[in-house]
Each structure stands twice: as C-alpha cells, then as structure tokens.
C-alpha cells in the first residue's frame, strides 16, 4: 500500500470529527452538548497530529542506527500530553457545569444568562 492509501482514511476521519464538533458548538445551546462537541474536536486534532507524524516503514528512534527512516516521537508526545490535559479540562468543566446547574437550574446558556 502506498502512503496516500494509508493516510487518506485518517484525514477523512479527522475532517468528519472536526466538522461534527464544529456543528455541535455552533448549533447547540446546552452547555454539556457544547462541551462534548469540543471534546470531539479535540479527538480530531489528536488524530491529525498522529497522522502527520506517521512515516511508512519508519522505526522507533531507540533502535540501532542501521535504519534510514525514523518515526518522529514528538507528535506522539504532544498527543499524550494533550490527552492528559484534556482529562484535566474535562474534570474541571464538569465541576463548573454542576455549579452552573445548581445556580441556574438549567444547562441552557441562553436561559441561564438573565441580566
């Protein structure tokens, strides 16, 4: 298989995840649904970073020096860091949403924003 045949499905999946997430952020007024849409977009960005870092026939850079192609470990490290940060942001957002719900009685941001 050539490189384009391997990565094209990943790029299509990235575009679908980003589109679904963007649609959810734009069209929904429920804060939980908006947050879930942002998480879907985050997953798309993580998949994009992993796909960009893929090298066909590449090997890990920790093996011996006889290999000509090495896979760059930086995108993998960035995605691992993004997953950990995403988990922390998720926990914080859930806490904020619980507090918002207790204060306003709803998760609809248009109803909760009474001046």
Report on the architecture of this protein.
With 115 residues, the protein is mostly helical. The protein has a single domain (3-112), classed as Helix Hairpins (Orthogonal Bundle), CATH 1.10.287. The protein is built from 4 helices and no strands. The chain has helices spanning 3-27, 31-52, 74-104, 109-112. It is elongated, with a radius of gyration of 19 Å.
Largest sheet, strands/sense/barrel = none
Q: Estimate the global geometry from the Cα principal axes.
A: elongated
The averaged pLDDT comes out at 87
How many β-strands, per DSSP? Answer: 0
Structural class: mainly alpha
The end-to-end distance, rounded to whole angstroms, is 60 Å
Q: Low-confidence segments, ≥5 residues, pLDDT <50? A: none
**CATH-defined architecture:** Orthogonal Bundle
Give the ordered list of helices and strands. Answer: HHHH
The overall number of domains is: 1
- Overall helicity: over 70%
CATH class: Mainly Alpha
The rounded Rg comes to: 19 Å
**Total DSSP helices:** 4
| DSSP strand content | under 5%
CATH-assigned fold name: Helix Hairpins
């Amino acid at each position: 298989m050539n490189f384009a045949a391997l990565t094209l499905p990943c790029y299509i999946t990235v575009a679908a995840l980003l589109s679904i997430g963007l649609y959810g952020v734009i069209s929904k007024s429920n804060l939980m649904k908006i947050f879930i849409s942002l998480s879907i977009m985050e997953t798309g960005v993580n998949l994009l970073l992993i796909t960009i870092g893929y090298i066909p026939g590449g090997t890990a850079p920790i093996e011996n020096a006889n290999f000509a192609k090495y896979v760059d470990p930086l995108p993998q490290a960035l995605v691992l860091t993004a997953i950990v940060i995403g988990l922390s942001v998720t926990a914080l957002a859930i806490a904020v949403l619980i507090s918002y719900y207790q204060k306003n009685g709803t998760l609809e941001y248009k109803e909760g924003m009474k001046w």
